[in-house]
Amino acid sequence: MSMMDMTFLGTGSAYPAPHRGASALVLRTDGECWLFDCGEGTQTQLMKSQLRTGRIAKVFISHLHGDHLFGLPGLLCTVSLNTNPDPPQKLKCVDIYGPRGLRHFLRVTLGLTGSQLVFPYAVHELEPTPDQSPEEAWLSTEVTTERGALHPQEQQGRSITLDPSSDTYLLLEDSKFVVRAFRLYHRVPSFGFCVQERDRPGRLRTELLLELGVKPGPMYGRLKSGESVTLECGRVLTPGEVLEEDIPGRKVCVLGDCSSVLGQAPLRLCAGADVLVHEATLGDEQQERAVEHGHSTPQMAAAVARAACVRKLVLYHFSQRYKPESLHKEGEGDDVTELKRQAEEALQGTDTEVVLAEDFLTLSIPLKRTKK
Amino acid sequence: MSMMDMTFLGTGSAYPAPHRGASALVLRTDGECWLFDCGEGTQTQLMKSQLRTGRIAKVFISHLHGDHLFGLPGLLCTVSLNTNPDPPQKLKCVDIYGPRGLRHFLRVTLGLTGSQLVFPYAVHELEPTPDQSPEEAWLSTEVTTERGALHPQEQQGRSITLDPSSDTYLLLEDSKFVVRAFRLYHRVPSFGFCVQERDRPGRLRTELLLELGVKPGPMYGRLKSGESVTLECGRVLTPGEVLEEDIPGRKVCVLGDCSSVLGQAPLRLCAGADVLVHEATLGDEQQERAVEHGHSTPQMAAAVARAACVRKLVLYHFSQRYKPESLHKEGEGDDVTELKRQAEEALQGTDTEVVLAEDFLTLSIPLKRTKK
Question: Contact A196/A251 with Cβ under 8 angstroms?
Fold first, then answer.
């Protein structure tokens, strides 16, 4: 059975404070780590956590604000220091996904600092649409386009445009996962990511197989992998007859900074998610200020969670005025647990659980046994 | 009387570890802070220190390696958040000095992330010479030259070339300080900085003045500022007659990563320094490895200190294998105090004091009463 969990490395907004790092979280599946956003100091937070620095296999950057990005060049250097370079043919390419301009950012920062990596990397850029942010925030291709030769360890990445039929971006598809991105509204183009684990075949009904006279052996494997087999008696056995119901894949959605999602596609894509990670920079009482800065409040995050019928809503990206719960003193300053209360209130009547993220919190994401 | 002190914000090499930050130190004089190098996480170290984030007035970057630079874009953003934007005419330009390529680095990182600052900034670039690093590390102007429009808060900086007569770079001169840079040898072009405080007039001999019948008043100020005055009796009094000896200015030298200094100019410039900050990445027993990576050992740092007859040698930029002294357990792993012992041994027979820098160590740099 495959494990999946999520560890928050930074849950603060604007800058990395001593008690709340800048945005970063790691989704871990069977030993491979995927990093979502990488504010300054993420590599140091990673060292303080239980995760192993050398395992970052993919990086997803939601938008190009510094508190989500400034840690990336240094993190790549440190991942490289922690990667065994032998044998070189075993070194996989680190795939990095993010808005147009990210390739230029990395090529310049790694290039000017003479940073060499032991592994190859590729930046796959999402092409934003102009309605994702105010007009004045739009970066021209003049500003975002990389120039000159590739970095010595850089492989040519893809440019990914919006698929008009689904109103989403297809980032990757393999035997285990499909990852798509969707558009958010923020001060600069910002994206959400949806990681959909593929359904996997259910357990073999071994009792039934034994009754049919099929003993453990190669036929079990073929049935499990979806093949029909012919028994000695000539009977053809299909997988559907001897497999329990499919085990549904898990779905994890991580949204970048936003004051809203664009259109209905994000809600369709996130529908029924096991975990939805949504920002809640300020409390409901400051909604006007939050929206003015392109941010959300707990009530706004809850509205997305409700519309998408998610199991768990995790709030993060808190204004640095909210101290971690463990450091908060009764009656002094802003209380982060109030943000949780506001989201819970807005989710009354649903089964959605609300979780407050804190730096180094690890959430386990268990397999579901059946489709809900 | 003017104060001067130095606070180390990061004393580790290669990357910011939880117990030893990446390179950064602040020289503070009368409330103005000058930052030397800015590894990732410097802004957070600054918040943890006693210093005030909003006071960074000048930045000096010794070389373009990430562990000395990756914190700069984020630091500027956070200094800006801590700067009162009113009245705008009171906002001074933050002057940033460093090797060619630094202007491009900042324009791209601040530009792509949409980072706005409330104050103007200017990057003054030092033009390295090819003998400062191995040939393959040389960055072509193709790679280092900034393009397109200035960042909205950017003012055009200077390009500073080596002054062949002194073999140094003149960075700034004002009524209080002269700052020069000099060349080091490292894997990439690296520089040292020498901050020379100007001598100031000695104390007024008020007893003598009273004997001559000159009472406290405007004449005292004129004499102190170096003017001669004519007494009622017609006698002309020169400042030299009534001022004690000049108070010599302090001299502080901070060297970037290096395995050696280039030529004799650095030694002449650093001669008699109150404080010389020099890297000691590895112990003497690993000198070969240190030099191979362009670094120094305590003995090598001590040789520079000895040749320049400095009062105090401060070692920093330790390999992350050296835990801070407070965390080191007897008999376990590498002992940073051994680096101090090695430098002290190499300085036997001199008056030079050796100090091990640790994160958040503050060294006071007192005024000297007389020329040595």
Answer: yes
Report CA-CA distances (Å) from B361 to B10, B24, B50, B193.
10, 12, 10, 20
What string of DSSP letters covers A261-329? Answer: E-SSHHHHHHTT-SEEEEE--S-GGGHHHHHHTT---HHHHHHHHHHTT-SEEEEE-B-TTS--GGG--
How far, CA to CA in Å, does A156 sit from each of A127, B234, B352?
16, 85, 54
Provide the 10 A C-beta neighbour count for residue A330.
Answer: 5
Residue A100 near residue A139 (C-beta atoms within 8 A): yes
Residues in CB range of B202: below 8 A, 6 or more apart:
B243, B244, B245, B246, B247
Q: Helix, strand, or coil here: B159?
A: strand
A143, B111 contact by CB (below 8 A): yes
| Angle, vertex CA A353, rays to CA A268 and CA A172, nearest 5 | 40
In sign, the C-alpha dihedral spanning B261, B263, B264, B266 is negative
Chains A and B: how many Cβ contacts under 8 Å? 127
Rg (CA), chain A: 23
d(CA B66, CA B22): 9
The H or E element spanning position A98 is strand A94-99
A147 Cβ partners below 8 Å, 6+ apart? Answer: A104, B147
Chain centroid to CA B141: how far?
27
Among A268, A361, A369, A261, smallest CA distance to A316 is for: A361
Please tell me whether residue A356 adopts helix, strand or coil conformation. strand
Q: What's the distance, CA B290 to chain centroid?
A: 23
A135: enclosing H helix or E strand? none
The closest of B188, B187, B162, B355 to B274, measured between CA atoms, is B355
Predicted TM-score (pTM) of the model is 0.95
Nearest CA in chain B to A142: B148
- What is the full per-residue pLDDT of chain A (372 aa) written as tens digits? 589 999 999 999 999 999 999 999 999 998 799 999 999 999 999 999 999 877 899 999 999 999 999 999 999 999 999 999 888 888 999 999 999 999 999 999 999 999 999 999 999 999 999 999 999 999 999 999 999 899 999 999 999 999 999 999 999 999 999 999 999 999 999 999 999 999 988 889 999 999 988 889 999 999 988 899 998 888 999 999 999 999 999 999 999 999 999 999 999 999 999 999 999 999 999 999 999 999 999 999 999 999 999 999 999 999 999 999 888 888 888 999 999 999 999 999 999 999 999 999 999 999 976 554
Is residue A233 a contact partner of residue A212, using CB atoms and an 8 Å limit? Answer: no
- Out of B14, B47, B148, the one facing A143 most closely (by C-beta) is B148
Give how far B316 is from chain A: nearest CA, Å: 19
Contacts of B230 (CB under 8 A, 6+ apart): B236, B237
Give the residue from chain A lying closest to B75, CA to CA.
A15
The set of residues, in sequence order, having a beta carbon less than 8 Å from that of B163 and lying 6+ positions away, is B169, B170
Structure tokens that stand for A37 in this block = 């956003």
**Cβ contact B17–A44 (<8 Å):** yes
Cβ-based burial of B148 (10 A; exposed 0-12, middle 13-18, buried ≥19): exposed
Contact: A74, B66; criterion CB under 8 Å: yes
A159-160 vs A121-126, strand pairing mode? parallel
N residues, chain A: 372
Count helices and strands in chain B by DSSP H and E runs: 11, 19
Residue A344 sits at φ, ψ, to 5 deg, of: -65, -40
Q: CB distance A113–B70 less than 8 Å? A: yes
Question: ipTM of the assembly?
Answer: 0.94
CA distance B186 to B131: 10
